[in-house]
Amino acid sequence: MGPIPARFLDTGPAPAAWNMAVDEALLEACKRGLSGNRPVEESGVAFRVYAWSPPALSLGRAQSAGRDVRLEVLEREGIGLCRRLTGGRAVLHDRELTYSLAGPEALLGRSISETYRRVSEGLAAGLRALGVPVEMAPPAPPRAGGARASHGSCFATTSVWELATGGRKVVGSAQCRVGGAVLQHGSVLLRSPEERLLTLLKGRGARGKGRLPAGSYAVGVEEVLGREVSFAELAAALREGLAGSLNAAFREADLTPAERARAGEIARERYGNPAWTLAR
Q1: Which residue out of 30, 82, 154, 176 is catalytically annotated?
Q2: What is the Cα 224 distance to its own chain's centre?
């Protein structure tokens, strides 16, 4: 079988609600293609890269904003807030490249673990091409009452197939699946935001127990390499790596008019709606 036709979209910086709405619109487009009995190769694999303006904090779908987030600090510092469609814990999106992949599970992996593995292999290949010595970190077993188990940050915990260097995470990802379609998105750090994130999250437990020392569990590509890395350079490397791991032939593309219109609807109905963001 030849390479899978796939789209590559660089949608640049945008507010939190729009970023999350576009990811969901791409997932919906894939699901519609599958339900319309289109051949699986034509149902819309899309690899998207984007940034956040202004910086924003995203919560996992089931995470409690009231329990974990200092909302007054977010407002004072002009940091956006959104709730993802996917699970996991809080991520501060600032100095990073955010990626998303939407496509049929028949092409991206028929299980959660398989998709994570295949995507991580591609991301790892791209990062290694830049000189970042990443490895797929095995999941750390939770420790009862331990700091990692109680911390509200995505980068304070390690899931299967996630990428780290020197024991510190470089990439944090999350996933959802519906109707045979998969969405996986994640943050590839240029610089670790964790020191700032500590000021935005409430410590779990008595007297704020559960905090970890800043810099102890996350690191950015620029910090590893000791040089500046542009968004475009990182995007090109990740695109090349994923082309290999997914056997995909990426072509540069834009959102379709239908996807753009649907993303606007989703942003208004869900991600820009405080009832969704603050519900839990």
Answers
A1: 154
A2: 20
156 pLDDT tier (thresholds 50, 70, 90): low
Strands 162-165 and 135-137: antiparallel
Q: Which domains, and CATH codes, for the chain?
A: 4-277 (3.30.930.10)
* pTM of this structure: 0.89
My answer on whether omega of the bond before 54 falls inside 30° of 0, hence cis, is yes
Q: Has 154 been annotated as catalytic?
A: yes
- Bridge partners, 173 (sequence order): 186
Question: What integer pLDDT is reported at residue 145 of this predicted model?
Answer: 43
